[in-house]
Amino acid sequence: MLVAHVRLNRIPHWHLRYDVRGASTFVAGVHKHHRSTTTHSTTAALRKTSTMPIPPALLTPDLLAPADGAYPQPRRGTLTGQSPPKVPTPTSVVEAAKRLAAWTAVDRHILPEHKVIGIGSGSTVPYVVERIVAQGKEVNKDRVFIPTGFQSKELIVKSQLLLGDVDQYPEIDVTIDGADEVDHDLNCIKGGGGCHLREKVLAEAADTFILVADYRKNSTVLGTTFPQGIPIEVVPFAYTKILQNLHLIGSPNASLRMAKSKAGPVVSDNGNFIIDAPFPEEIMKDPYTLLTRIKMLTGIVEVGLFCHMAKAAYFGNQDGSVTIKWHDGRIEKVAGNESAVED
Ligand SMILES: O=C(CO)[C@H](O)[C@H](O)COP(=O)(O)O
């Protein structure tokens, strides 16, 4: 293998490693002592040793190189850096309820022996991560955290927890995630944030899958408190045909989810479109049958109906208690951690 190093003028102490087999990777924080090497001589050396073309942006004359320290060092999620960002104290009853649910679920299900942890998406999940961080650096230093999308990836990195992916860790100890609505059998609607494909993969990969939500999500029949419909991720080119088919199987108002601050549709973390398909109550009463029906349509990537997956769902209540619904039908009500609603 033939390898050459070129110092990046614009990014001090970072080097681009050229590998003549075709790969190029950034290697951080090494070869600082090469700072005096000129770009021209390095380029000449590179030309002798590599057949790879050199991107013009890397060939800026050395004169333009900034002084040491002019650029910040790259951000990294480590357990040794500064303190993680503080999650703002909840300012409403609903936020306090989310935090109560999240903290109670973490206290009961994220135990020291759990080393691979799936982190869901949505506005309740930051409280989950907050509580995990509070368990301390010692317990977290040999844990790896798997995100369900862009938001949870950022959350993990900013909280200085170790980031992994489900292709490295297809077996997860515990995944904790939010939900849009949960019924009496712990079936739920997910995908309000468009992350349900990865969320379902991480739910399925987990030994234990736990839902956390505020009291508004605690329901009997799906579609009651989340009427906007079942989120369905679809391959973009098929969306019109899928909409027609959804109309035919009982969702005449199924529609493409449109972006709020961009012209056009919402595009998922996987580059797909999202359809929201509301169905009448009679159909929603049997979510598993509906899930299999939708999943059979060609072009569907994943359906935001999670059936028979969760072990328990934690709902924070307005009175500071937490309702826990278990997969075997038990319902518990426990006092929430008082500090979850205080500063
Ligand atoms: O499924 C999701 C994202 O795709 C979320 O978990 C769900 O929308 C709940 O979010 P929040 O905690 O903000 O109510």
Top-tier CATH class of the largest domain:
Alpha Beta
CATH architecture of the largest domain: 3-Layer(aba) Sandwich
Mean pLDDT: 84
Radius of gyration: 24 Å
Number of domains: 2
**What would the CATH topology of the largest domain be?**
Rossmann fold
Shape: globular
What is the spatial order of strands in the main beta sheet? Answer: 5-4-6-9-15-16-17
Q: What is the percent of helical residues?
A: 10-25%
Strand tally is: 17
Termini, distance in Å? 57 Å
Low-confidence stretches: 1-40, 76-80
Order of helices and strands: EEEHHEHHEHEEEHEEHEEHHEEEEE
| Share of β-strand residues | 15-25%
Bound molecules: ribulose-5-phosphate
Descriptive report:
The structure is a single chain. This protein has 343 residues and is α+β, with helices and mostly antiparallel strands. It has 2 domains: 62 residues, no CATH class; 264 residues, Rossmann fold (3-Layer(aba) Sandwich), CATH 3.40.50.1360. The strands form 4 sheets. A 7-stranded mixed sheet has the order 5-4-6-9-15-16-17, with helices on both faces. A 4-stranded antiparallel sheet has the order 11-12-10-13. Helix 2 crosses helix 3. The longest helix is centred in the N-terminal third of the chain and has 17 residues. It is globular. The site of ribulose-5-phosphate has 17 residues, from helix 6.
